[in-house]
Predict the structure.
Amino acid sequence: MLPSRRSGSGCSISPTSTTGVVVRMLCISVVALAALCLFASAPSAHASSGGSLALGTVTGNTLMVACGGGQWLSGMTCHSATITGCPSVDNINFIYGYLPPAGTPQGIIVYFDGGDGTSAVGEATELQMLSYYASQNYGVVEIAWATAWEQTTNANIQNAACRPATFLNFIYSGIYQSIATGTGGNPNAGMCAQGYSAGSAAVAYSLAYYGAGGPVGTGGYLDAVELISGPVLSDIKQGCMEPNAPNVTVCPAGSSPECQLGSDSPWTLPPVYVNTDANYLKAWANDNTCQNTYPTFTSSASNAAWLAQSIVDQSNLTGLGAAPSFSYPNTAVSGWLCRNLLKTDPTCPNAKDYLGCPNNSSTQGQIFYSQVTTGTSPFNVYSVDGCQGPEAVPSGTVSALTVVYGGQAPSGEVAVENDMAGYTPLFIPARCVRRSH
């Protein structure tokens, strides 16, 4: 979940990752001016979400700031803003950047980074993916929160997810509508999101509780999502409880039609948060007992509170928490999970080595994907082999796509890029296109 969680940023990158970027940079001076107009005119998010939980409001978004720190795509225009009005949740400041599409706009892609989200992007590989989207005429949005989006004074993570959900709705209501329905717009442009680790949880909460993936007539608007190494907050109870929850099998045989394993087989790991992640959950969930050392047994109150603020909160069983929706008939869902590591610490699993041992990301992801209904289409979960860290999907390979890529398994980075934005030479269609909402 940490911004520094990944390794392998020095791996070789397919030329498809950067095609067209040089040409795109020639247009920056023109589109930057257009971006100013879009930011200034973008309305605040609606108070109603169409989901079981309400949204807040984005305010102060006309203030321009520098896009600093190497976290933003070149040519982006950045603004500071505040989210207010999320029920029971503190106001939060943030900076967001927008690089508008060149040529005929193909859509908008919003990126949420992992960990606490206070960095817009964690590594060069993520920027390379965003650069590819820009080269395919997608507008790209990044966000950096002033403080952890998951943490509040009195609320829980499920309520705190109002923040990324409100931001997504804000981008849809303002920037996306401008490129889809404005002069020279493209009504077939997609409104899409990509999240990494805890960032994938931000997207999943938006789908399950805040109406972003709702069916026709309910206000749903996300056309495609790419969920990388997660969602890691699917069942916080199973991640935090002591004694540990039972192991989870990812893509069990015969029960997961969405699973794309290729030559891989299902794998079984704990859904337990490793040490560094458990420390984050202690703060985010306002409970210092997450993953306390056994034989300390977790209290029933803590278990209930953790479950009630999860993505898969099983409210129909516990009577606690809001009612989630796992039917996304107009949203393409792609999940990407590391099956194994290129180099594994020989003391795993006892060491809980943050970079050298598998972590909870694939099993927590499985808990969410097992709930998503078969009515969601297209819906695929891909296994990724040889990751250079437990969540380093871009550095691994996807055997399920070997045939599609002419006999050689593509890297996770290339596979995600092409799944979202398409790749014409191989006739891979973009999932980020407008669907029926």
Notes: DSSP finds twelve helices and twelve strands in the chain.
